[in-house]
Amino acid sequence: DVKVTQSSRYLVKRTGEKVFLECVQDMDHENMFWYRQDPGLGLRLIYFSYDVKMKEKGDIPEGYSVSREKKERFSLILESASTNQTSMYLCASADPYPGSYGYTFGSGTRLTVV
Amino acid sequence: KNQVEQSPQSLIILEGKNCTLQCNYTVSPFSNLRWYKQDTGRGPVSLTIMTFSENTKSNGRYTATLDADTKQSSLHITASQLSDSASYICVVSARSNTGKLIFGQGTTLQVKP
Question: Quick one: closest CA in A to B31, which residue?
Fold first, then answer.
């Protein structure tokens, strides 16, 4: 089974802190994604990456950046955390082919910014 | 605009009863449709995935249907259990090589004893 591992289940950070959310997948997938999930808004795509060192903005990239130095690892960075970034963050990975069956989510990181 | 709409928004049923969740989409060109189950505080877990040529797929007590002509899908849960209490998310993939998905808002199901 594909495993997508997010480093923290729960995280509490202070406003203005730099925050790193880590995601690691073990299936050699080329595509990796970061979403945030908020009540009433569903899942929204922040950034995705289709190759090492490649990244593309999703629907809500403002206030976030990403890093993909190795194929298996995709990091989400909050340069200066704000309270409106309190949310559930989900990482996912997928193989690249159309109709791909291999789209898997991590368990999520619940981030609270105080 | 690519959209996925789910109904109802929430549902309460008694343990042992059946229920059906609906999903309508306007995604083009269509690649596949997935149903995910998401327990509170956890990541979504895939239940079924269907391509254009498939119109029914089962996973235990979960049966998904797809009508590609009307762009509708349903998820039927048979003999519900307390552990079925969760959010169910319909997700549609447009045909591309990046794997981007369009998510519905989800239906929150509560199964009561």
Answer: A99
